[in-house]
């Protein structure tokens, strides 16, 4: 066979049945990514004779004699295709995992196709950007600041440093590498929701040619741990083993096969014979707490940090301020209802996976798709009894996270296999495994009671929360506590009550997900505020203005937190309300929709603590190079959250240089220091503070060193345009580096941040919608979000975080739903059966920023990665209620859910 790939001939013959994607990757063309293996996401897109195709669906032999173009060859000899440059100019990517496929499709579009981008790009999914910047790229818009003077990087729309590599397909993700002698891992998973493993017969599996090992619970350490990764282990229960002799949900790993090829490992999995003793299972969270219900973890106690295993309660919270019952009885208006939210998958396009090997000095190396390399190293060290310096965990660029990779789902098995076989090993989850065996958002039932006086002042707020954490308690407690905290502490109210429980069920575990419990609780709280306002005849904006916390007000929710380090570093919630109200009023023209369409508007607000409680640690190191530039080392990971850009901006500003002068190393435990991880809205607020501290310390060192050479006072020195300046004297950084090298004292500094004190960020979302009262169809006519991010470190990047958060939240609000049947099985574990937003589904959201500067955050900045997601479904629910007069209390707001209520009210 003869293949032409990117203008070069190849004569290799693909294996029987091999798809084009795996063939290309084996030839070193890593730009074709694995996102779904079903032709649903477009991450594997290549051009075949100039036409975009999903290479996971094309048998490799069909490319014989044809011209294949991958992202690496799109630019040809010129190096950069105009569409690649357009994506850099528009910053049309975040994590970048979808970008190669997206660019190839965009580059192939003709003018007719560009008139309907929704149809033209329906085969390419982006989970990060919200699509606006991708559309900007196609429109030729430039969203970046071309020139920025030295020392002025912070606050400017500078491009992501990895941009050129991302658009050329040269950015390395977890599996974009080759390793000699690599073995492959495949996992046998439980077909039962609850069972005891009686025996596993490995004999036939071990006879499969190429199989090196079959690992079961008998081969794994017996240590209990949590897959959740937090700085403090006490936040999560110890209820998980690498491989267990009891399975608690359909999809739980039973055994791991290690073989020369994936095919051999899969065949060996099929030949494993497992004898199960089937145990009673409980699927419904209400039933899980009932007397006589099957117990998911009967041997767990409070020592394992499980609140009440006999009732399947992992964590609970109860508390009251004032007298809610009396306040409700005396209120002028009250509201009460129950809201339910569904399971949602993170759907990061890069699935969980990694590589592990022992190096020549016996260090266990794990390269994985993780948000928390340092915490994962700690866990592996503890579980396997290895010294910390004998474990290295690192990540390259990560293809999306959204909280789902604040877990340890694969690194433990990788470590076990590498240690047992002493060979390098690989485990890459399939898309189906991602659905059935990792984690989801916590489904919740939230019952709310609320009251207000005749003037619109809140008199009572009461939440009763039931959270379904699934078979394991990773993040169960913190998500529950967070859901019941900022959702009501953003409102002043003298009487508040919270009762919350998180329960085990024999279903796929829930875990950390962008917003961390607030999207679920806010659906109820923000609906209650609107319903009270409607009864009183007060506008939703004014109702909130009368009740939101203001600087100086306590931020209270029962039970009182033991952490008292949250402050108003800046306050822009009032501005956010004003910005959204003005934007909605300025664009309130009548639509030309037929009369069966009902028009309505809705808003919702949110407050979020910028960092998790109990400590979030980041170290940074920066050193002057011989060429006058700087090497900056941080631990936080880059997965589209933009930390790589912001850290360089912080350092460049503090050191009066350009971002090009800052060379960044990150997310590798071998670099030293510590970083709790890129989660909890901490990438800028915590790790950025560490970078700022290190850069400011080095700035002082530079001044001192120059002053020593000049024999003057360091206080008379300033940094300016890559030099130390004192009066008319100027010493370039490169000259200073040479002096320091001659003296044997390289100029370097470290910085640290402990994550305390903490600040708060605010967001307000507004929607105008149209609902067809005959069909239940919903159209979004207007979307506006105002954000208080403090001093915005990078406006285009921060806007992208908001747009992406809104798009992701709209998917969950309108159609995304993991369906669990009566046996506990996920019935739609593929993208094809799980509707992810495409470009046609997402409206353009106008993003507005409050004018604030945070006194706690680095250079006035604070978080804006999680919070844009939180007010979306509540605002949409309020807009639907305003349009129809019907309060829909369950997400997603699908037409088939809206239709019965509309039919009941308006008839046919």
UniProtKB/TrEMBL annotation:
GO terms for molecular function: 2 iron, 2 sulfur cluster binding; iron ion binding; oxidoreductase activity. Pfam families: Ald_Xan_dh_C, Fer2, Fer2_2, MoCoBD_1, MoCoBD_2. Keywords: Iron, Metal-binding, Oxidoreductase. Residues 1-74 form the 2Fe-2S ferredoxin-type domain. It comes from the Bacteria. The keyword Chloroplast does not apply. Belongs to the xanthine dehydrogenase family. This is Aldehyde oxidase. The lineage of its organism: Bacteria, Pseudomonadati, Pseudomonadota, Alphaproteobacteria, Hyphomicrobiales.
